[in-house]
Amino acid sequence: MKDVFGQALYEYWNGDRSTPYIIRRDDGYVSKASLKEYFATWLEPGEKAVLDFVQGKILDVGCGAGRHVLYFQDRGFDITGLDFSPLAIKVCQESGCDQTFHMNIFEHSLPSESFDTLFLFGHNIGIGGTLEGAENLLLVLRKLVKNDGALLLTTSDVLRTSNVKHLQYHNGNHETGKYTGEIRIRVEYKELIGDWFNWIHVDPENLERLAENTGWMIQETFGYFDNDYAAVLKPFLKK
Predict the structure, then answer these.
(1) Domains in the chain, please, with CATH?
(2) What is the pTM of this model?
């Protein structure tokens, strides 16, 4: 896969602060955004909401430019970041992240039960691409967390959005037999055009079902913004 998003992060890191990156959805909807948020030194509202559940050794899955790694590293936490983008990891390493690695979480070689806290911030449960893929992701992460640990994530309940174009897209998914939260997108930056890939937003009801199927239980959820929410998942121990 072309590392277009990584290229955008790397060029921003090296001084191009004006060129936006583009996310194009397969229905033609285009979102232009600054890369500034990927270098923020503060936490988003949903991340702040679950801050009390952060403990011990942390794994940040889909760490991007490393903003969470740097934030928690600067506060004395032992945090490791993983990302599928080699250029994103290059940014992390150049910006001072101590432990970041280019890795596909589905093909990892990390030891079982080696982390106290797992992050899927930035809506990164979307890495799964589909409900089946999200379930597989939760299963992989369940094996990495200690029995008294936690998974902290942010995602969206897409049908609660006030954006009419988004509602039309997601309702169209339902009409064609797809899960409403699935999207197909690509990243564009300058003359670079990335490959199409699947992303997913998971509503609370389906997140609860996926959690139960993979050895998790939802302890708390926190709503913020239009239709976004944060969730705290704890390992479910069968008696």
Answers:
(1) 4-34+42-235 (3.40.50.150)
(2) 0.96
